[in-house]
Specification:
By secondary structure, the protein is an all-alpha fold. It has 14 helices and no strands. About 80% of the residues lie in helices and about 0% in strands. Helix 6 packs across helix 9 and helix 13 runs antiparallel to helix 14. The two termini are about 25 Å apart.
Length: about 350
């Protein structure tokens, strides 16, 4: 336990360092003007942005509730919301969001679900979310390609989207094709071991085998629950579009003019930011998130606007959720475990 706490403290320090670096990048050229903009912001409008962020988390909680009700009919929306907030904290405090699902299993256990059911729920959630995110990103990519193709930063968006699409595509192929499944387990992993990317070949192969089995089970559950699949796909699309639109709310909150700004372009830019940030291994993608955001939105907004919007967006979508998630987790940890 002491080692785990120490790791989280180290990660928190890393987050602070890289966040400080991101803030320095944002403020260094127009410090006084940006600070005046942020300090004179309408508190009521900030609350609107916070409510939008929390509403996105509520949708996540609702989606988790739909999955959990397959095995626990009385699983509530409040329990799903709590699980979503705790996941946000652990996704944000661990490198590459690696700790989120482990924390969710713990919360599910506290809420009366056995580990096997929790793992299945999270696999199904991962499948639906990743497929939906890839499809939404693809639509935005194709829709806005005439605008972005003249900007070099667009290559980052294509790279991020491409890796996400390849990962989910390979997993689906492994589920439906024994040849692809065998090739991944033996040929691909052996090659990665030869070029020293994979250190323990057998361990990686076993982990991959377990993951593919879980993924296959998740696909089977979704195929047998068509109505559930439609509901959660639509909920994920709405959740993603709401989340991607938060910079627009930030622009409105800071009283910047946006009559001439294409909302679809801003939504697409946020989508591209999130696709790229998924591959930044620093906890919370700190530093990288701020930099990529300013590079992407710098195509639309002035220096003062993009820096001000980034600070408000990052605070509401990351730092605030980290604080709330930590508080909720402490309460969950101290609560009694429901009888399974």
């Amino acid at each position: 336990m002491k080692s785990l706490i120490r790791n989280y403290l180290v990660n928190a320090v890393i987050v602070c360092i890289f966040t400080g670096w991101g803030l320095w990048l944002a403020l260094k050229d127009h410090t006084e003007e940006i600070m005046n903009t942020l300090l004179n912001v309408d508190v009521g409008k900030v609350l609107v942005v916070i409510l939008v962020v929390l509403f996105c988390q509520l949708i996540v909680g609702w989606i988790l509730q739909q999955y959990a009700k397959i095995v626990k009919k009385d699983y509530s929306l409040k329990e799903g919301f709590v699980n979503a907030l705790v996941a946000s904290f652990f996704h944000g405090i661990t490198p590459s969001s690696s700790g989120g699902q482990i924390a969710q299993v713990f919360v599910f256990h506290k809420q009366g679900l056995v580990v096997e059911h929790s793992a299945s729920i999270l696999v199904i959630d991962f499948i639906v979310y990743q497929i939906t995110m890839v499809l939404v990103s693809l639509i935005l990519l194709v829709w806005k390609i005439p605008y972005f193709m003249n900007h070099s930063i667009f290559l980052l968006a294509i790279l991020g989207f491409g890796v996400n699409a390849i990962v989910i595509g390979v997993l689906i192929l492994c589920t439906f094709s024994k040849k692809v499944y065998t090739w991944i387990l033996h040929v691909a992993i052996a090659f990665l071991a030869r070029i020293k990317i994979v250190k323990d070949e057998e361990s990686v192969r076993e982990k991959m085998r377990v993951k593919l089995i879980e993924f296959s089970k998740g696909i089977t559950v979704l195929r047998s629950n068509g109505k559930l699949l439609i509901k959660v796909v639509l909920a994920n699309i709405f959740r993603l579009l709401m989340y991607y639109a938060i910079p627009i709310f930030c622009l409105w909150t800071l009283d910047f003019p946006f009559e001439k700004i294409d909302f679809v372009t801003m939504i697409a830019l946020t989508s591209f930011v999130m696709n790229v940030n998924a591959f930044i291994p620093i906890p919370g993608a700190s530093g990288g998130t701020e930099s990529v955001f300013m590079m992407m939105f710098g195509m639309l907004l002035s220096s003062v606007q993009v820096s001000s919007v980034m600070v408000l967006w990052r605070f509401t979508t990351y730092h605030l959720l980290m604080i709330l998630g930590a508080i909720v987790f402490i309460k969950v940890q101290n609560s009694k475990t429901k009888v399974v």
